[in-house]
TrEMBL record:
Residues 22-303 form the ABC transmembrane type-1 domain. The keyword Transmembrane applies. PROSITE patterns: ABC_TM1F, ABC_TRANSPORTER_1, ABC_TRANSPORTER_2. It comes from Butyricicoccus pullicaecorum 1.2. This is ABC transporter ATP-binding protein. SUPFAM superfamilies: ABC transporter transmembrane region, P-loop containing nucleoside triphosphate hydrolases. InterPro entries: AAA+_ATPase, ABC1_TM_dom, ABC1_TM_sf, ABC_transporter-like_ATP-bd, ABC_transporter-like_CS, P-loop_NTPase, Type_1_exporter.
Amino acid sequence: MYGTLKKVFAFAGSKKGLLKKSLLFAFLSGLFSALQFAALFVVISALVSDNRDSSVIWISLGIMAVSLIGRIITTYFSTMEQTETGYCMVAEKRIHIGDRLRYIPMGYFNKNSIGNITAIVTTTLGDVENSAARVLVSVLGGFFNSVALVIVLLIFDWQIGLVAAAGVLLYLAAAELALRKSAALSGVRQHTQESLVESVLEYIQGMGIVKAFGLERDSTQSIGGAIRASCMDNLKLTKASVPYDAIKQVVVRVFSVLLLLASVWFWLNGSLSLAYGLILVIASFMVFNDLENAGNMASLLQMLAASMDTANSIDDTPIMDEEGTDITPKSSEIVFDKVDFSYADRKILDQVSFTIPEKTTTAIVGPSGAGKTTMCNLIARFWDVNAGKITIGGTYVQDFKLDSLMKNISMVFQNVYLFVDSIENNIKFGCPDATHEQVVEAAKKACCHDFISALPDGYNTVIGEGGGTLSGGEKQRVSIARAMLKNAPIIILDEATSSVDPENEDELQRAIEALTHDKTIIMIAHRLKTVRNADQILVLNDAHIVQCGTHAELIQREGLYADFVSARQEAIGWRLTQ
Ligand SMILES: Nc1ncnc2c1ncn2[C@@H]1O[C@H](COP(=O)(O)OP(=O)(O)OP(=O)(O)O)[C@@H](O)[C@H]1O
């Protein structure tokens, strides 16, 4: 229990102060609530001593009014601060996670699906946001109030106080047992929740394929399975707590009766006045009231702690930027020196060495799946090499701060992703300070100005998730405009024109040539006309650079490149068209 409370406090981060204030107000609210005793005591004392003075009514009413107003004010502040703590601490965490994800190696995303991360940032943190602070204050507030009442009982009558203390201790022991049981199940429930979000995302993202293959029923079954599993785990969690809830109920009822009997017993043997006896009976019920509320909330707190563990797990993943510094490289020459790289056990690069001189164009060619994209991703440090070194201008890519490394690189990916935002902002993504005129100029060069101008809102048209409302070719041209505007010294083009239609391709090719003027270019290309003008062609096969040279040199030699060119058609997944 203590560990769980500590966890919630730690999670509050910079909002710990607010949480403490909220607790203080909850405690004050408990004290104002306890004032009701004084009012009751005045009334009961008057009743048992047959005091008919009207001042009794006014005094007790006055005390009740102070109690009520005090409670309203303190509860108001406590609730406001709980709410602010909940929203602010989770907002901080979400921003922190978003920031951290940028610096986490891409391998993390292999092990943790998008569904998993989405579940953490939305539902998991949503639960924490709505309930954690409130539940913590209810648990601690309820516990403090019941302890305070036990102390009052001990002061009134130590024997009655001892009975109440024993009841509180037994109740806490049963609550602790219940918490331990739910701790194990909370983790499982958390995992099922993530699987559910993952299934829903996959169901929606894969809807086109599902329809095309008529697999609606299969995929409905799979999402149905995830929903049922989530339902079962929630039920399991609730059922596991039922026996402990019963034990807690028994403790509360038995000790309430014991306190009642003890009060009557002490009154009968003359050690307790009737007024004291009656007030103690009422107080004993109130002790367990607060405790019961706190106990019921404790298992919810346990579930929230499991959610916090999941959100914190992102922090346990080592990030790539811890050692990096802001560096402007001396040149944009890229060197691979005996680089090894594997995805898990699968070796993609084996002792690969080559140099890409500054301001030259290098084409990487090779069969599908040879590792061309991977090689480019290693330059941008999406992954770290297993052995060997990659340098830019003589500096190891690991020594750069990630941001300063990326300032030097513009990438046009094979699979273009555009954000749900205006086309203008998508083009400005790598260069937020660019003017509208600069955006238009880049769009014109990337052959996308005409289709953007024809859209109802022109450059302000908001595109769908991932660029969903644009065609493949249009998305690719927008991403080329984005790279043009960024104007970095190194440009990586991963099959940058693969989705562009033939009418636009020549024009775009010329634009790319303009973009790449005076830059260091690495291109993965399948069209001969793109490749043949490169200053250097690297042929990648079976984890090695098997050939290196210009088109004129390689075409003369026997080997994979000459085979590909002579085939002039699809060969091992690599197309060359003239
Ligand atoms: N994130 C990843 N995790 C595990 N394996 C991966 C990952 N990305 C790629 N691979 C595998 O590594 C191999 C090389 O992939 P890569 O995309 O670099 O090849 P490529 O030469 O660019 O292929 P293509 O020409 O078809 O785009 C492939 O077999 C691919 O399945």
